């Protein structure tokens, strides 16, 4: 054993869940809100692609943050015990060869590939991800 604790309750946040935690917690499904409120997890993960996605949403005018994006990011990252997950070569390649029929949104492909590579469920309400049979969701 390498001395690292075995984590059993690990989750990957979908981008919209991360946004809702900080701007619209009332939109969180009860199950996810309860998990977060009770801190019923060992590790929360966030793909770096979610940071890019938030910046793109703001750039396109589809997201209005109360503060500049960089300031919001600093707060949103520090306010939760987040493990930021890089896009590794394995994740990048896996996102381009997901099994079955998954839609073509590159951010969602990266998020799904990340969860699959890590073997953890995604906290999401995105129907396209929830219906995809090759990844676990909550």
Report what the structure shows.
The protein is an alpha/beta fold and 138 residues long. The chain has a domain at 10-85 and 121-130. The chain is built from 7 helices and 4 strands; from the N terminus they run βααβααβααβα. It has helices at 15-23, 30-37, 48-59, 69-78, 89-95, 106-118, 127-130; strands at 10-13, 43-47, 82-85, 122-123. A 4-stranded parallel β-sheet has the order 3-2-1-4. The longest helix has 13 residues, at 106-118. It is globular and about 40 Å long. 26% of the residues are buried. The mean pLDDT is 93.
Supply database-style keywords.
single chain; 138 residues; alpha/beta; 4-stranded parallel β-sheet; 7 helices; 46% helix; globular
Largest sheet at a glance?
4 strands, parallel
- Uncertain runs with pLDDT below 50, 5 residues or more? none
Major sheet: order of its strands? 3-2-1-4
Count of DSSP-assigned helices? 7
Which percent range fits the helix content? 40-55%
Brief description of this entry?
By secondary structure, the chain is of the alpha/beta class. It has helices spanning 15-23, 30-37, 48-59, 69-78, 89-95, 106-118, 127-130; strands spanning 10-13, 43-47, 82-85, 122-123.
